[in-house]
Design goal:
Number of strands: 0
Strand content: under 5%
Number of domains: 1
Structural class: mainly alpha
Number of helices: 6
Length: about 130
């Protein structure tokens, strides 16, 4: 059974049982995403400020690949950031969230650790206010 078949059968089961009510949004998820965004902003800003005040001698991007461990983390971050950016664009368009592209642009200036959970908070608020979403 493929993904489409699974989703279709789930929709069919809901319609045959008469249960067309979407599941309730979990309470507090909006605030949880905002807390994660705040931690992401403060945590990354702290180290970004330190890198300016206490330069290591490497350029910013050279430090991303200073050794195999850091290189692994850097590639991990880049792939997750790419996936998050794609999700933000697709989901922002799908749901009609205004200014969705700002989260992607802001991630280059701040951090994806801040902008992605912030987008998720805005998305959660949007879904809670939209009955058919």
């Amino acid at each position: 059974m493929g993904v489409r078949d699974h989703l279709h059968s789930r929709d069919m089961n809901a319609s045959t049982t008469g249960d067309s009510t979407p599941p309730a949004r979990p309470p507090g998820v909006f605030w949880l995403y905002l807390a994660v965004a705040a931690i992401g902003l403060v945590g990354t800003a702290w180290f970004n400020i330190r890198s300016v005040v206490e330069p290591s001698g490497d350029t910013f991007f050279a430090a991303w690949f200073a050794n195999p461990s850091v290189s692994s983390l850097s590639i991990d971050l880049l792939i997750v950031a790419a996936a998050a950016s794609i999700f933000i664009i697709i989901e922002g368009r799908r749901l009609g969230i205004r200014w969705y592209w700002v989260y992607v642009v802001a991630s280059f200036v701040t951090a994806i650790a801040f902008t992605f959970p912030l987008f998720l908070a805005v998305r959660e608020r949007h879904l809670a206010r939209t009955p058919e979403a």
